[in-house]
Amino acid sequence: MQQQAATSGFPRTSRLLRAKDYRAVFSNARHKVSCRFFLVLAIPDESGAARLGLVVSRKNVPGAVQRNRLKRLIRENFRRRQTQLCGASLVVLARKDAHRQPNSALNGKLNKLLDDLLGKMRSTGAAECGTASRESP
């Protein structure tokens, strides 16, 4: 039980931590997918590990509770898909009114966006690992 909790977290190696990491994704985004509530940008990562950066601004999501809810939801979706997204650095931006949607709707949108992103990455040969062990959402 304790081992499962350790592997299902969000370690530092899975995060974009520095401003230069975010800048690299914003300026060199090779793959972009979006919907009304989220924008996902991705670039290949030399480390081979999937890494996630979050942008949930006060302007778009005014309440701290709602911002934290969105961040938890995005992190959980990323964690479930992490093995499929290896070799990519992602930045997920929450757009205006995302906080007004129920979790189920946002989960559906994020799953579709990540499916679309994986499709784009596969078509360019950027996603080679984790394709055989695809998990269902």
Explain how this protein is built.
With about 140 residues, the protein is an alpha+beta fold. It has a single domain (about 15-120), classed as Ribosomal Protein S5, domain 2, CATH 3.30.230.10. It is built from four helices and four strands. The protein has helices at about 1-5, 20-30, 65-80, 105-125; strands spanning about 30-35, 40-45, 50-55, 90-95. It has a four-stranded mixed sheet, sandwiched between helices. The relative contact order is 0.20.
What key phrases describe this protein's structure?
alpha+beta; Ribosomal Protein S5, domain 2; 4 helices
Topology (elements, then pairings):
Elements: H1 2-7, H2 19-28, E1 31-34, E2 38-44, E3 51-55, H3 64-81, E4 88-94, H4 103-123
Parallel strand pairs: 3-4
Antiparallel strand pairs: 1-2, 2-4
Total of domains: 1
Give the DSSP E fraction (strand runs of 2 or more residues): 15-25%
Which sheet architecture does the biggest sheet show? 4 strands, mixed
Quaternary state reads single chain
Within the CATH hierarchy, at the fold level, what is the topology?
A: Ribosomal Protein S5, domain 2
By CATH, the architecture is named 2-Layer Sandwich
> Termini separation (Å)?
22 Å
The level-1 CATH class: Alpha Beta
List the strand order in the largest sheet.
Answer: 1-2-4-3
- The overall pLDDT average reads 86
Condensed summary:
This protein is of the alpha+beta class.
